Amino acid sequence: MAAPQALGTLFELPLEAFGRTVGAAAGSSDTSLTAESLAALQLETAGQEAGDGAAAAAAAAAAPPRGPTCIACGIGVVGAAGFASAEEQRRHFSLDWHRYNVKRRAARQPPVSAVAFAALVAADEAADEVGSLSGSEASSDADRDAEEGGEGGGSGAAGPQFAFQAADGKRYACWRALVAPDRERCAAPPPAADSLAALRALRLSGGRWAVVMLRGGHFAAAVFTVDPARVANPRQPDKFEALAHKSAHRYVVRAGQGGRQSAKDAGGKYAKSAGSRLRRYNEVALQRDVAEALGGWTELLAGCSLIFVHAPSSNWQQLFGGEEPLLAKADPRIRRVPFTTRRPTFSETKRVLRILVTLYQLPDAAESAEEEAAAAAGAQQAATEAAAAAAARQEQDAAAAVAAAAAAEAAAAAEEEARRKKAEKRARQKAKQKEARVAETAVSRAEAEAAAAAAAEDEIGAAAAAVAAMSGRLTAKPAPVSGGAGGGKGRVLRAGTLLFVAAAAAAVLAVSRQQRRQLQPASGMRRRRQ
């Protein structure tokens, strides 16, 4: 859907154009509104500030070459015209153009003209540099210190738009903070008719508004007179008259670390360094500065019809906490700034007020209906395509699952076949090993039998040789002896010896046979065991 377009201010819309309400601008994109429309307003506001500087420079050039000067910006020096009055010089010192040239002078760099500064402000890449012109040199990231999402911060996505329809059928929207208090300060949202009546009254009379900003050690507050005629005048460069303003800065957040020192102390990490002591002292000093500024504006704040506050996280407690709060939390005039802001400065308070009074034009109902129908058709087509893609993915997943199951089955079969072949190979190896053992045993047995037989034959031969030798000695003819009785005794002795030898030979043969019989059963038993 087309984003709302930022027109002028709501004071430029004729009073009769405030017709009937059409509800909250929920059909519009709050994100587009905050990101695109506010970006254009930032450039416009920056150009307005630069225009103030250019106007001051033009006034100084038109004045005679005397009067107050500004060395940093080159006004009233080297033959250039000075300021027409001390008041004009003081107004010049409050411009970001002057602050920027002061920093350049401290860095030994030449000053830039008002026109060059306006171009620098308008450049997108220089937005961060210009945003840190006033205050300290700390980066804007350190100033935020994770406080943007806390209580009192901007909420661009919370639906801050109030929409209404003019008599000619055009649809407009403004910030809801102008016509209705914050949700926590009212029991129920006011009726749309009451909000429209409040917007008409605001368009008719304007009033006195205050802007209070406190974040990251930076404080800025200002009270403005909002004159409908002055704001609607396109030739008026400064739309709002500042009745009072105050800004201060204290070093309370460590650069690059984020978070206040008091928050770290409350978490149980009480540091004792010189920097931590300085930050604790500065927190107390900043609270004192804020109390002195707001305390001195009691009458001004009492006469304000609206008070806009931007104080994220713990800064909100500094304004509304304690026994004697600086601002009453239940005051229906107090409204949160409903968008993201820059570092709190006096120039930022004017920019916040400029954005708050901006009027936005919403797309026509017919165009919105057509865009909604086109968006619905596109969403339906996208859903159909997504469903078709999901079905195709499911089919692919099913086919992949079937293929994976087949692959797993094939892998299991291959593994089983490999296991079977391995078992068969192991069985063949065992059979070969058994045959080798049997053959080796048979060879060993045959060798043992042959050795036993040879040993028995050797024993028999030795016994036979011994018997033969003995029988030869016995049968040899002995020497003759005297007397017949001696001869008879010799024959008897030889006969006995022969008998003895024969018995010995028979015993040897019996022993050899017995050994053979013992070897044969042992061989049979080994054969049966194998």
Automatic annotation (TrEMBL):
<keyword id="KW-0677">Repeat</keyword>
<dbReference type="InterPro" id="IPR041175">
    <property type="entry name" value="VLRF1/Vms1"/>
</dbReference>
<keyword id="KW-1133">Transmembrane helix</keyword>
<dbReference type="InterPro" id="IPR047139">
    <property type="entry name" value="ANKZ1/VMS1"/>
</dbReference>
<dbReference type="GO" id="GO:0004519">
    <property type="term" value="F:endonuclease activity"/>
</dbReference>
<keyword id="KW-0040">ANK repeat</keyword>
<dbReference type="GO" id="GO:0036503">
    <property type="term" value="P:ERAD pathway"/>
</dbReference>
<keyword id="KW-0175">Coiled coil</keyword>
<feature type="active site">
    <location>
        <position position="261"/>
    </location>
</feature>
<dbReference type="GO" id="GO:0016787">
    <property type="term" value="F:hydrolase activity"/>
</dbReference>
<keyword id="KW-0378">Hydrolase</keyword>
<feature type="region of interest" description="Disordered">
    <location>
        <begin position="419"/>
        <end position="441"/>
    </location>
</feature>
<feature type="compositionally biased region" description="Basic residues">
    <location>
        <begin position="420"/>
        <end position="431"/>
    </location>
</feature>
<feature type="domain" description="VLRF1">
    <location>
        <begin position="205"/>
        <end position="359"/>
    </location>
</feature>
<protein>
    <submittedName>
        <fullName>Ankyrin repeat and zinc finger domain-containing 1</fullName>
    </submittedName>
</protein>
<feature type="transmembrane region" description="Helical">
    <location>
        <begin position="492"/>
        <end position="511"/>
    </location>
</feature>
<keyword id="KW-0255">Endonuclease</keyword>
<feature type="region of interest" description="Disordered">
    <location>
        <begin position="131"/>
        <end position="160"/>
    </location>
</feature>
<keyword id="KW-0472">Membrane</keyword>
<dbReference type="GO" id="GO:0005737">
    <property type="term" value="C:cytoplasm"/>
</dbReference>
<keyword id="KW-0963">Cytoplasm</keyword>
<keyword id="KW-0540">Nuclease</keyword>
<dbReference type="Pfam" id="PF18826">
    <property type="entry name" value="bVLRF1"/>
</dbReference>
<comment type="similarity">
    <text>Belongs to the ANKZF1/VMS1 family.</text>
</comment>
<keyword id="KW-0812">Transmembrane</keyword>
